[in-house]
Amino acid sequence: MATVPSPVSFDEYMNTSYSPDCEYIDGVVIERNVGQGEHSYAQGKIYRKLDEFCETKRLVVLPEQRTRVAPARIRIPDISVVRKLERVTTRPPLLCVEVFSPEDRWSRLTLCIGDYQEMGVPCVWVVDPFQRRAWIFETDKPPEEVLDGKLRAAELGVEINLTDVLPPLTDLETE
Hints:
By secondary structure, the chain is of the alpha+beta class. The chain has helices at residues 10-14, 38-55, 106-119, and strands at 23-25, 28-30, 60-63, 67-70, 73-75, 79-82, 95-99, 123-128, 133-138, 144-145, 150-153, 158-161. The chain has one domain (33-164): tt1808, chain A (Alpha-Beta Complex), CATH 3.90.1570.10.
């Protein structure tokens, strides 16, 4: 028989450290998939490319930053780009990036993307390093699979080659 998670107050969530950090959705603490191997590689590469681009624009690139997408919801994008550093992001990031893990499901990612867009995030990237695919979700446009090899965020004026952030096509060591 499945157990029902106990509700947690927002203040309790905000004053508790989780390792790895968890999301908070309408009173429930939700565990996230932690990236390994291909996920971590792609996340690191995307972070470095965005950080290099944003440094001259005085923008801040954050890995796994708590983002308050609604009064009772905290999401933790793998990477976000913001104008100003906050302890918990409350202003819509200019870009949120989600990197697929093998355990991720589109149903969960769709909810995250919806929360980001409701908050006012103009662009969300979803990168799947396992299938070597990516999608761009922009406000008022249908989702677009990256078929030309370019991750773009019009709001930022950034373009990154997908192949520059994907792990090499070699066998991953599993031990």
